[in-house]
Automatic annotation (TrEMBL):
This is HAD-IC family P-type ATPase. Residues 2-64 form the Cation-transporting P-type ATPase N-terminal domain. The chain crosses the membrane at residues 40-62, 68-84, 231-251, 263-287, 633-656, 662-683, 704-729, 741-760, 780-800, 806-828. It comes from Acetobacterium malicum. It is found in: Membrane.
Length: 845
C-alpha cells in the first residue's frame, strides 16, 4: 500500500523514478535477457564453427601453427560478423516490440502523458477508457459510465459498473466496485484510477496466471530452411566420409598420421563447403529488417512471421469508416417530412453526447451551431437518463429536461428508428423514398425522432419501448480517402480482393464502393442475412460478394472464417473491443493505431499507425518484396555454394595432391567471410520488382525453393563451377609446380563472379545495370561491392598472400580472370533478354 494520496497533479517525474527503483517495473516476470556469453556459445555451437575449430586444431597438431592461427583469426572474423548481425536484429526487434507494447495514459507533473505500461508505478494516476486492458491494480478516483469486464479474473461474465471511492458502499466481498484490477478490460466509459499495486503484487499477478510470454516460434520459412539445412548437412556428412576415405586411398605414399589428417581435412573442407549455414541468417535478417522498414512507413509488425504471410494475402477485409473513408463527416442534407428542419436540428443536437468524440456527432453539433443552436442552448438542461448506443441496436437516445419539458431525443439507423416511430403508410413510403435517394448518393442516413413524456414516470425503460414522432432524416457525407481509388486498382491488378465491412446501410456502402471502383459492388450481404445463413451458404456467397453492411463485430469472425475455408489468406482490420477475436483468427489481423482499442492492438499482427487503407496496400506490397528478396538470396546462396562444394568434392576424387587443392579449409572460411555479408546486405536492400503488384498472390503452400529457382541456381552454379575449376585445372596443367597460381586464378574467378552474381540475381527481369542504377545512390551497396574488390586485391598483392597460399597475378592474368568471371555469370543477362523479347512477342522460341 502507498500511504499518500497523490495530488491531482499526479506524481512528479522524480517521484516516479524513485518509486520505480523501489517497486520495480510493472511486469509479471522480468524480461530474461540472453547474456553475451550465451549468445557466443550459441553461435559457436553451430556445426559450421565446430568444423572450423576442428580444422584449426588439426593444423596445430599437424605442426602448422601458422595455418591454425590464420584459421582462428578468420573464425573470430566470422563470429564478429554473426554477433554484430545478431545484435542488430535483436536491437531492431526490441525497438519494434517497444513501439507496439501496451501504453497507458497517466497524469504526471500535472500533464497528461502516455507511458509504456511497464513504467507504471504505485501512486500514478492513470486514465482508462473503453478498450483499455487495465495494466495495474488501483483505486477509482473518478469515473463516468465505466464498465469493466472482469471475467479474466473472476470468471463473472457480466460487466461490473465501477464507482468512485467516495461514493462506494462498504465492500461486501473480495472484489471491490471502487477498485480496478490488472488484466481486466474496460468495455465502456472512462475512469481515473490511482495505481496501488503493480506487477506480481496485483491480484492478477497473485493468481499466477503467468501467461508466460509465448516463446518466439520459428516462422514457417525458418522451419522450411531449417529442414533444408539439415538435408544438406546430411548429404554433406555422407560425402565427407566418402571424400575422406578416397583421399586416404589416394595418398599411400604419406605416413599413416599424415594420411589420416589429410583425409580428415579434405572431408571437413567438403562439409564446410556444403552446409548452407547462411540460410537461417538470411531469414532473420531479412524479416527483421523488413519489419523495421515497415515500421518507418507507419506499419508496425507485432509478429515476425506476419512479414512472410503479408506477401500471400489474397483477401483484404477493411472497415469502411475511417480506413477507406477519411472519417471526416459533414452534414450534407437534412429533410423533415413536415418541412420543420429547425426542430430536426435541435433534436439531433439533443441526441448527441455532450462531449462528442465520434466524428459523426461532431459533425451534427457543428451543423446545429450553424443552424443557430449553440451547445449552451442544447445542453443547458438536465440530462435525466440516456439509452446507450450498441452495435446491435444501432440507435441511441437522450432524455433531457429541457425548457421545462421532458424530451426524449433519439437518433440512429433509419431501419431501427422507424420501427419505433408511428407513421402512416403513405408517410412511410415518402420517408423510405427519401432514405433511398440519400443513400444512393453515398450518404450515411440517420433518422431522428422525438418523444415528450408527461412525467418522469412515463419515461420508457428501453429505447425500443419508446413511441417516437419522426423529426426527419440527416444525410452525412464521409468522403473516401483520396488515394483509395488508385489503391483499389492496384489490388485488382495484384489479384487481391478488397472486401468492405461497414455498420452503414447497404445502399450507402454500395454507392461508396462504386465511387472508389470496387468490383462486385452490386451484391450486398447485410448483417441480418448473414445471421440467417449457414456457414456453407456463406462460404458460397463470399465468392462473389464484397460488401457487408449493417454488420456487428461478431459477424466479422464468420466472414473471416468463410474466406479462410475457401483457401484465401485473409487480412482483416478492426478497431473495437469486439473485433479482437476476428483479428486473432485472421491470417493478418490489422489494428488501428489511432482510433483502435488497446485490446484490438494486442490481438493484431499488424498495427496501422495512420489508419490508412493505402498503408495496408503498401505493406502488402512490401511483404511481397521481402519474400522476393529472401527467395533471391536463398537462390544466390545455393548458386555460390555449387562451385565451392563441387571443387571440394571433385579435386580429392580426381586424386589431386592435398597441398595443390583449389580450396583448403582456409579458403572456405575466407569465402564465408565474403558471401554472407554481400548477399544479406545487397539483396536485402533491393527495391521491389516493377511487376510486383501485377502478379497474383503467392500460393502460401509453395516452397521457398521451387523447381524454377532450383533450375536457375543449379545451372548458374554449374557454369560457375566449370569456369572456376576449369581455370584452376588448366593452370595446374600448365604449371604443375605452381599450384598457388592455379588456386589463385580459380579462387579469383569465384570471388569476382560472386560480385557479378549478386547484381545479376537482384532482379528476375531487369538487367544488372538497371539494378545497379536503382541502388546507385546507396552507399552501403557500393561499400560492400568495392570492399570485396579491395579485399581481393589485398589478399593477392600484399604479403598476406604467402599466409593464404596465394600467388600474385600478373595484369593480364587478372584481366583474364576478370573476363572469365564476367562471362560465367553475365550469360544469364541473355536469358533475361530472350525472356523479355519473348514476352513482347518479337521473337518466339
Ligand atoms: P461503421 O462500421 O461504418 O463505423 P458504425 O458501427 O459506427 O459503422 O455505425 C453503424 C450505424 O449505427 C450507422 O450507420 C448509424 O446508423 C448508427 N450509428 C452509429 N453511431 C451512431 C450514433 N452516435 N448515434 C446514432 N446512430 C449511430
Ligand atoms: Mg464507427
Amino acid at each position: 500500500m502507498i500511504e499518500n494520496s497523490t495530488s491531482p497533479m499526479g506524481l512528479t517525474t522524480t517521484e516516479a523514478i524513485l518509486r520505480q527503483q523501489q517497486f520495480g517495473k510493472n511486469e509479471l516476470a522480468p524480461q530474461k535477457k540472453e547474456s553475451f556469453f550465451h549468445k557466443l556459445l550459441h553461435i559457436i555451437a553451430e556445426p559450421m564453427f565446430l568444423l572450423l575449430l576442428v580444422a584449426a586444431a588439426i593444423y596445430f597438431i599437424l605442426g602448422e601453427p601458422r595455418d591454425g592461427a590464420i584459421m582462428l583469426i578468420f573464425v573470430i572474423g566470422i563470429i564478429s560478423i554473426d554477433v554484430i548481425q545478431e545484435w542488430k536484429t535483436d536491437k531492431t526487434l526490441n525497438a519494434l516490440k517497444d513501439l507496439s507494447a501496451p501504453h497507458v495514459k497517466v497524469i504526471r507533473d500535472g500533464q497528461e502523458i502516455t507511458i509504456a505500461s511497464v513504467d507504471l508505478v504505485p501512486g500514478d494516476l492513470m486514465m482508462i477508457y473503453e478498450g483499455v486492458k487495465i495494466p495495474a491494480d488501483g483505486t477509482v478516483i473518478r469515473c463516468s459510465d465505466c464498465c469493466v469486464d472482469e471475467s479474466s479474473l473472476t470468471g463473472e461474465a457480466e460487466g461490473v459498473w465501477k464507482v468512485s471511492t467516495e461514493n462506494a458502499l462498504p465492500a461486501s466481498d473480495h472484489w471491490r466496485k471502487d477498485y480496478c484490477y490488472a488484466g481486466t478490460l474496460v468495455t465502456q466509459g472512462t475512469a481515473l484510477v490511482q495505481v496501488d499495486k503493480i506487477g506480481p503484487a496485483t491480484e492478477y499477478g497473485k493468481i499466477g496466471i503467468h501467461v508466460a510470454q509465448a516463446p518466439d516460434e520459428p516462422t514457417p520459412l525458418q522451419k522450411q530452411t531449417g529442414s533444408l539445412v539439415k538435408l544438406c548437412a546430411g548429404i554433406a556428412a555422407v560425402l565427407c566420409a566418402l571424400v575422406g576415405v578416397i583421399t586416404y586411398i589416394n595418398i599411400p605414399d604419406h605416413a599413416l598420421g599424415d594420411r589420416l589428417i589429410e583425409s580428415i581435412l579434405s572431408g571437413i573442407t567438403l562439409a564446410m563447403a556444403m552446409i548452407p549455414e547462411e540460410f537461417p541468417v538470411i531469414l532473420t535478417v531479412f524479416l527483421s529488417m523488413g519489419a523495421w522498414r515497415l515500421a518507418k512507413k507507419q506499419s508496425l509488425v507485432r509478429k515476425l512471421p506476419s512479414v512472410e504471410t503479408l506477401g500471400a494475402v489474397s483477401v483484404l477485409c477493411v472497415d469502411k469508416t475511417g480506413t477507406i473513408t477519411m472519417n471526416q463527416m459533414t452534414v450534407q442534407d437534412t429533410w423533415a417530412p413536415d418541412g420543420n428542419v429547425a426542430t430536426l436540428c435541435e433534436i439531433m443536437g439533443l441526441g448527441c453526447e455532450t462531449e462528442a468524440y465520434d466524428p459523426m456527432e461532431k459533425a451534427m453539433l457543428s451543423h446545429c451551431e450553424k443552424a443557430g443552436f449553440s451547445r449552451e442552448h442544447l445542453f443547458g438542461g438536465e440530462l435525466i437518463t440516456e439509452y446507450a448506443f450498441t452495435n446491435e441496436l444501432k440507435m441511441m437516445g437522450h432524455v433531457w429536461f429541457h425548457d421545462d419539458e421532458i424530451i426524449i431525443a433519439a437518433k440512429g439507423s433509419p431501419e431501427r428508428i422507424l420501427t419505433i416511430s408511428d407513421l402512416s403508410a403513405t408517410e412511410r413510403t415518402r420517408v423510405d423514398d427519401k432514405i433511398q435517394s440519400m443513400s444512393e448518393q453515398g450518404l450515411r442516413v440517420i433518422a431522428v425522432g422525438l418523444m415528450k413524456p408527461k412525467t418522469e414516470a412515463d419515461i420508457p425503460q428501453t429505447i425500443e419501448a419508446c413511441q417516437l414522432t419522426l423529426c426527419g432524416l440527416v444525410g452525412l457525407a464521409d468522403p473516401p480517402r483520396e488515394t483509395v481509388k488508385a489503391d483499389i486498382a492496384v489490388c485488382n491488378q495484384a489479384g487481391i480482393r478488397v472486401v468492405m465491412i461497414t455498420g452503414d446501410n447497404g445502399i450507402t456502402a454500395a454507392s461508396i464502393a462504386k465511387k472508389i471502383g470496387m468490383p462486385h459492388s452490386d451484391h450486398i450481404i447485410t448483417g441480418d442475412m448473414l445471421s440467417e445463413m449457414s456457414d456453407e451458404e456463406l462460404r458460397e456467397k463470399v465468392k462473389d460478394v464484397s460488401i457487408f453492411s449493417r454488420v456487428i463485430p461478431e459477424h466479422k469472425m464468420r466472414i473471416v472464417k468463410a474466406f479462410k475455408e475457401n483457401g484465401e489468406i485473409v487480412a482483416m482490420t478492426g478497431d473495437g473491443v469486439n473485433d479482437a477475436p476476428a483479428l486473432k483468427y485472421a491470417d493478418i489481423g490489422i489494428a488501428m493505431g489511432k482510433r483502435g482499442s488497446e485490446v484490438s492492438r494486442e490481438a493484431a499482427d499488424l498495427i496501422l499507425m495512420d489508419d490508412n487503407f493505402s498503408t495496408i496496400v503498401d505493406t502488402v506490397q512490401d511483404g511481397r518484396r521481402i519474400f522476393d528478396n529472401i527467395r533471391k538470396a536463398v537462390g544466390y546462396v545455393f548458386t555460390i555454394h555449387i562451385p565451392i562444394a563441387f571443387a571440394a568434392l571433385l579435386a580429392p576424387l580426381m586424386g589431386i595432391a592435398p597441398a595443390s587443392l583449389l580450396l583448403l579449409p582456409l579458403h572456405l572460411v575466407l569465402l564465408e567471410l565474403i558471401i554472407d555479408p554481400t548477399c544479406s546486405i545487397v539483396l536485402e536492400r533491393q527495391p521491389a520488382e516493377t511487376d510486383i503488384m501485377d502478379r497474383p498472390p503467392r500460393n502460401p503452400k509453395e516452397k521457398l525453393l521451387n523447381a524454377k529457382i532450383l533450375l536457375k541456381s543449379v545451372t548458374q552454379g554449374l557454369v560457375l563451377f566449370a569456369a572456376s575449376f576449369g581455370t584452376y585445372l588448366y593452370m595446374l596443367g600448365q604449371h604443375p609446380d605452381n599450384p598457388e597460381l592455379a588456386r589463385t586464378m580459380g579462387f579469383a574467378v569465384i570471388m569476382l563472379a560472386n560480385l557479378f552474381l549478386v547484381q545479376v540475381n537482384s532482379s528476375d527481369h531487369d538487367f544488372a545495370y538497371q539494378s545497379i542504377k536503382r541502388l546507385a545512390k546507396d552507399q552501403v551497396m557500393w561499400a560492400v561491392s568495392l570492399g570485396t574488390l579491395a579485399g581481393l586485391l589485398i589478399i593477392l598483392y600484399t604479403p598476406l598472400n604467402i599466409f593464404l597460399k596465394f600467388a600474385p597475378l600478373s595484369v593480364s592474368q587478372f584481366l583474364i580472370v576478370f573476363a572469365i568471371a564476367g562471362i560465367s555469370v553475365l550469360w544469364y543477362e541473355l536469358v533475361k533478354l530472350i525472356k523479355k523479347l519473348n514476352k513482347s512477342g518479337k521473337v518466339s522460341i
